[in-house]
Amino acid sequence: MPEKGLLQTKYIFVTGGVLSGIGKGIAAASIGAILKSRGLKVNIQKCDPYLNVDSGTLNPAEHGECFVTIDGAETDLDLGHYERFLDQELTQKSSLMSGRVLREVLEDERAGKYLGKTVQFVPHVTDLMKKKIKDAAEGFDVHIVEVGGTVGDIEATTFLEAIREIGIELGRENTLFAHAVYIPYLDTSKEFKTKPAQNALKDVRAVGIFPELVLARSERPAPLSAKKKLALFSGASEQAIAMLPNAESIYQVPLSIELQGIGNFLADRLNLEGGSADLSKWEDLTDKIAASKKKTVTIGMVIKYADNEDSYYSVNEALRTAGWHAGATVKIKPINAEKIESDKDYLSEALKDVDGMLIPGGFGSRGIEGKIEAAAYALTNNIPYLGICLGLQVAAIAAARKAGLKDANSTEFDPSCTEPVVHTMEDQKGKEETGGTMRLGNYDCKIEEGNLAHKIYNQDLIKERHRHRYEINSKYLPDLATGGLILTGTNPGSNLPEILEAKPELNHPFYIGVQYHPEFTSRPNHPNPLFLSLIQAVL
Description:
With 539 residues, the chain is α/β, with parallel strands linked by helices. It has two domains: 10-49 and 105-283, Rossmann fold; 295-430 and 438-538, 3-Layer(aba) Sandwich (Rossmann fold), CATH 3.40.50. The protein contains 19 helices and 23 strands. It has a nine-stranded mixed β-sheet with strand order 13-12-14-15-23-22-21-18-19, with helices on both faces. A seven-stranded parallel β-sheet has the order 5-2-6-1-7-10-11, sandwiched between helices. A three-stranded mixed β-sheet has the order 16-17-20, covered by helices on one side. α15 (368-380) links the parallel β14 (356-359) and β15. α1 (24-36) runs parallel beside α3, α12 packs across α19 and α15 (368-380) packs across α16 (390-402). The longest helix has 17 residues, at 121-137. Mean pLDDT is 93; it is low at 432-436.
């Protein structure tokens, strides 16, 4: 990294066209990775046009998981991509939603801060957006800003105007616009169609943004003629058009972008200092992925959002990453928690070809009895088990019921239960409405020596990210021990339970539940120890 950073932060703005979900976030994160590999200090930010204040109340089945930063921001799953690709911890500054900006503008208006002026989207909303983008960029050589959705969405208009104005204010030498487009393939005529991408490029130029870098996504490799057409209609040079067909792994994208010369183009275009790119860690990861194909392990994930893989994106990535580093490909088998409740034979049948089980975090009572039954089954039948957040809580309820507490439950699912093994945190009582009332972000966990958790982490004190409102009720720890689970990790400040695991005399191969979300700190080049230990246990 240069001893002195660049005098002026350089901005790369990434917008999208044609349709959402084409991998704009992966492309933006990959650009960040190749620039960071040159020794530059890089930050990245997602500007989401939704009128939500944050992602905390968005439905995971529709929008994918809610990613949590170290300082407790509930954000879009793209921040997970950013952290994994840049291998750095981001903060709430890296997530900006329209609702948050609008709320602040309206609060200022009510407080009289605009001195009687007519409050408008331009300049008041756009000015605040620009301020928050520049605040997030402070102290970095390069700041990458991804605008969510697609150009043409009504709600995206204000963000587009804000970044257009930054481009004018800071000048071409300090700003660059990239536009992600999609090139469909028509199987009937056996040809690629660039017309949707051409139209998307016209749309973005119509709002005053002229992209000099085009990120062209496709399901399969497109011909050189497609690249030439995009150059003609975008005004970007051919060497600044990255062709990005589907890759075997998303972690090959930085290598692909660098191989196409995009890193050199950006360095020249923005006059970026720093050395040549060192992408050896991405090459090593690609080798590990290839080598892992010799073995396969299957992890059964007991879930209720089975229709959208993005609902558990970080968990899936953490499992896959752990597999690569353990030398195996991880196959994730969804097990429907609700079906466990309605079909007595479903669980045992579903687990016949499964090597281990995982129950991830979640909210609400739907499918909860099925998850409790699955956690109990894994403990009784020696199936390697990892419970995350809710996965810890259902394991505790299962152990309490095994110990004879027939009414054991969580007050989240049954507020009137007489054995509240899981209950609301004391400081959150009376604030049970959803959104912004949870234990969020990094908290310490002290691990007792001589147990599975300590063997996994090989540390006495760890920091992990949390996102929950309910806690294990310490009053019932003796009952949990009778049911087979012992406490091995606590928060040193509050003494709240953090880790439960199978007691040693059960000789269980691997059974552990944690209150935090280890998937948020897992990286493609160094997996979280819990996931790695799970895969090693099943191997």
